[in-house]
Amino acid sequence: MTYLNTAAEGIPPRAVIEALGQYAIDKQLGMDGRTLHEAQRHALRRAAGQALGMSVEEIGICSCSSEAFNLAAAALRLGVGDEVIINDLDFPAGITPWLPPNSIATTKLWRSRAGALRTEDLTPLLSRRTRVVSLSLISYYNGYRVSLADVATTVRNASSALVVVDVTQALGRMSLNLTDADLVISSTHKWILGMHGGCLVGAPNARRQLWTVPHGGWFNLENAFATDRFDRAVAKPGAASFSVGMPNYPAVYANRAALDYIKSIDIAAIEAHANPLLRACLDGLKALDVELLTPDEEGSTAGILAFRHSRAEHIFRSLHEQRIHVMHQAGRLRVALHGYNTFADVERFLSALHGALRRA
Ligand SMILES: Cc1ncc(COP(=O)(O)O)c(C=O)c1O
Fold first, then answer.
1. What percent of the chain has pLDDT over 90?
2. Who lines ligand 1 at CB under 6 A?
């Protein structure tokens, strides 16, 4: 097949499948296997720390980005008058945890213009009351890439808000500088080519008290088996508090192998290979009769392009019948280009799209 849908699901390399097999072998040791599971968890946190530019202690693991955002929102204990800024290019996992029916905080929507989030539109939304600005580094919707440094500077000039960054559509595809992020969240089943159920959370040590999830459980607690456990639950501070119970060890094994694999290929090599493919695909789309949703600006893309067409459903079916896999969702078609794609994939897609448009 011509696989252009890594932004939905990455295709795992053999090393990841073998890691799942290793989990199964270790699990057969019963309780003795847990030492091996824990060694894998430590190795995953170390690998994730390297990928995100953080230390082992700053990396937590939970089940999915949605869970991580909900736990982060709980940790902040937002109050009346507190404000959270979300944006209209973001995935629901990064938006809706700030909008529960019982929330007493207010959310403000940072609206994109022509597919781009402009910091001049963020400035009027910021105030002394802004506690969080939540955003994705790469938009799942149209692939728009924000400048984290510009967003952070804008935020810090007008407020003491925390910048929470979802890197799900970036990790494994582009080099990252996350020094401006106050919390980093990433799902693992897309560009790192890992498995579901093993979300990575990067909570900088400087903020560890703020990011201490106040929930019950045991894996997240200092005193789960201590004599005072019937009186109080004392959470481990920071990243460790995001794993409330037993981790999803199969995903831990797989994602450790996935990050090692990406490292062995090298992010710089992935970018050098896949960025020209994206450029070729973008130029090809511009020459066709589709409504491009991805802004074509210097530094504003990574691995994703999106476009609209009134016959999108028909186009999607036609491509799929030819075994060309793209995403059709949220009113648009989306193409994703990773290190395993080739110029032949791009040419095949553009020529099939051209044919489908002629018949549409
Ligand atoms: C930016 C972004 N965040 C998160 C997710 C997934 O969230 P979860 O891990 O909760 O399924 C996706 C896509 O599925 C996404 O595009």
1. 98
2. 64-66, 91, 93-94, 136, 140, 166, 168-169, 187, 199
